[in-house]
Structure of 2,5-diketo-D-gluconate reductase B:
Amino acid sequence: MSEKPTGDEVATANDCPRASGMPMLGMGTWQLTDEEVTPEAVETALGMGYRHIDTARGYGNEHLVGDGIKRSSVDREDVFLATKIWKSDLGYEDAIEQAHDAVDDLGVEKVDLLYVHWPAEAYDPVETFRAFDELVEEGVTDRIGISNFEPEQIEAAVDHADHDIFAHQFECHPLLQQDAVREATEEHGIEPVAYSPLARGDVFGHEVLSDIAGDHTVSEARVSLAWLRERGVTAIPKASGEAHLHDNWASLSLQLNDGELDAIDELDEHDRKVDPEFGPWNQ
Ligand SMILES: NC(=O)c1ccc[n+]([C@@H]2O[C@H](COP(=O)([O-])OP(=O)(O)OC[C@H]3O[C@@H](n4cnc5c(N)ncnc54)[C@H](OP(=O)(O)O)[C@@H]3O)[C@@H](O)[C@H]2O)c1
């Protein structure tokens, strides 16, 4: 008889592994802007056990995410809350102002993690990290993060920030595994965080992932999320409603075997889903 939990057993909040204080499975909120759906989805996620919520100034939904947290019976201090400063606002003064606006919009005293959303436009390692360091000292954020950085930009960030860079958020899933970026991130002791961990829906129907999912009678979403977790990468899938939130949360109970993990390692297609012209890899 198998001792492995079945895919239908949903892990409790305490079972979610943590990367240095950050729960390794979170909820993404990009494009969740509906006034009713968004607070409800956040409240549902927290009720289910999620304790990590990812938003950004650029998503225009911080007030709705904040409403969801307030509506939930989960205490604010038990939620790991991350937001990001948009690329046009990364000059010293704008970054300070935007971070204050972010906590106001979220209705919280501070965030747990504040990311540089993209190293583009107004980003300048000296001025941007001068502001971010000051925001840590002021208590507006507990930690500094970076997002969409290439390996050489990670080096520059580490050199310029006085406080440790805690996390690096970049696109990562079985179809875009980002070996070089993961390596550079981990080399500096920075926690890797995968955005678009379901390849924005493209993990569904992929032959190898579907076969593995079929063998466990689970969805490809769970397989992708379990692979990321086993490879030491935090994931923040976006889901709008209870069924998807539940399915993704249940990935915590899915144990892939070494053969399955290795087979997924072989799937890298360098298939990027988020590819704006200002992405540093396009410069
Ligand atoms: N730092 C950055 O530059 C950056 C860029 C992109 C994303 N992000 C962050 O990463 C988060 C996740 O990335 P993403 O939103 O691009 O894509 P994703 O999480 O890979 O995919 C989201 C899509 O998958 C669907 N979905 C979720 N769970 C599912 C399930 N179990 N079964 C079937 N479909 C499912 C969602 O549908 P429903 O909405 O209908 O549930 C949505 O259409 C974002 O929300 C954001 O917080 C950051």
In short: Residues 199 and 252 are 19 Å apart (CA to CA). Confidence is low (pLDDT under 50) at residues 1-7. The pocket of NAP is lined by residues 28-30, 54, 117, 147-148, 169, 195-201, 219, 221, 236-241, 244, 247-248, 274 (CB under 6 Å). The radius of gyration is 18 Å.
